[in-house]
Task: structure prediction
Amino acid sequence: MATLLGAINASASALDAQRARMEVAVSNMANAESTRGPDGEPYRRREVVLQSTSTGGAFDNSVQANGVEVAGVVQDQSAFRRVYEPSHPDADADGFVSMPNVDVPEEMVDMLGAARAYQANLTAIGLIRDTLQKALDLAK
Result:
């Protein structure tokens, strides 16, 4: 029973992590054309950093499930894209505009991966719940 609860906790922590990945990908896509932020620079792509964590689901030390948590959200320091658009209000003297370092297809792939991982963890929780229910039915 303790290992099943640990597995549920591990999957639940992964749900939170994948939700955070999806939120960051959506934010990146929404700002893919933002040429000026509060600091006066174009939007910088953000990435979620994940780390392993103990879920604390085991009652003894025989088996411990590890979960995942968001360690932080960092900015991608790669160079901005430069696009020639002399009529843009943020164009420099040569007519180039610094655009965010966001690659929309890459963000879509990240979002798809996060959505699939989220669904896999929901399925795992459902299987564990079904296993527990069958165990309770056998005990009757």
Remarks:
- The beta strands are 46-54, 66-75, 81-84, 96-99.
- Residues 104-139 form the longest helix (36 residues).
